[in-house]
Amino acid sequence: MSETSPAQRRPSGELEASVLAALWAAEGPLSPAEVQSALGGRLARTTVTTILTRLHDKGAVSRSRAGRGFAYSPIQDSAGLTARRMRSELDKQDDRGTALARFVSQLTDEDEQLLRSLLEGAKDPGQAGATDTGPQGPGAGLRPGPGGTP
Q1: Which end of the chain has fewer CB atoms at under 10 Å, N or C?
Q2: Which pTM value belongs to this model?
């Protein structure tokens, strides 16, 4: 059995990210062959199908029947997917407080200020800036956690 050296391997998640990028750029659902074409044909169709199936199993894409196969669509945009991944990682922690504290301690000053602004907007939706980007804007989806505090 031949082994691939670490230097020759793709970074973890690179193929999934490429497939998701192709789906996000599309006007509608894509078949595996269409995703393969959008990626420049550099991956085998079976590889693309495997990646799409894994993304479906993870809840990142939806699929619908298209002839004898499936057509795939992203469930969320890039920011939504990142938020879902962050939440998933947090859900794995026994000590959520420590995990959140360490996350916040590693934020840049600008990100910390943005987070403070988003949390304040979630507490008081009538505050200036809390709703000026619409229902899917920066404060969308924030809700108080256990005990009523976000």
Answers
A1: N
A2: 0.62
Q: What does the DSSP assignment read for 31-57?
A: -HHHHHHHTTT-S-HHHHHHHHHHHHH
CA distances from 104 to 88, 94, 101, 146, 147 (A): 17, 17, 5, 18, 20
Is the sign of the CA dihedral 88, 93, 96, 100 positive or negative? negative
Token pair listed for 104 = 């916040």
Quote the CA–CA distance of 53 and 85 in Å, as a whole number: 18
Round to whole Å and give the CA distance between 104 and 32: 39
- Are residues 32 and 69 in contact, defined by beta-carbon separation less than 8 angstroms? yes
Q: 3-class SS at 139?
A: coil
pLDDT in tens, 76-121: 898 998 898 889 899 999 999 999 999 999 999 999 999 999 999 8
Per-residue buried b or exposed e for 37-50, using 16+ beta carbons within 10 Å of the residue's own CB: ebbeeebeeeebbe
Q: Which residue matches tokens 């495997």?
A: 50
Output the six-digit token pair for 150.
């976000």
Angle of the 14-25 helix axis to the 45-57 helix axis, nearest 10: 90
